[in-house]
Amino acid sequence: MIFRRLWEIWVIYAIVSPMRRDPTEAVRRAVGNLIRELRKERGWNQTQLGAAVGVDQSTVSEWERGAAVPRELRAIADALGVPFDRFRQVIEAAAAAADAVEEAIRSQSLLSKESMEALVVMYRKVLAADTADLGRN
Q1: pTM for this structure?
Q2: Residue-wise pLDDT tens digits, 1-20
Q3: What CATH number labels 22-134?
């Protein structure tokens, strides 16, 4: 019974929340997705964005895969013609969503503390595996 309930909760969170294993990972992925989206809207490739910001193509690729958060966010926003505030909003939303998912898991009254922690660990592992798959796309 407990395993069935645990599985049901896990499926709900896996479907509803695309957030990552921790807020830092969530933020990296959200920023990377926004950079990719804005770059493509502008019709640029990674090399062109890198040149506009002063980095090489591989650095832009790292950002877009969520492997790193750029220190050059203001320069990226300027190069892509968007307000810096757009990045701030994405960062805040990603961090809050990741926190909310783990809090929701931990608030399940039907689960023992051990089951809740096991679910959190499982959630983080699945999301970490999803992150590793990004580099293959």
Answers
A1: 0.62
A2: 565 555 555 544 444 444 44
A3: 1.10.260.40
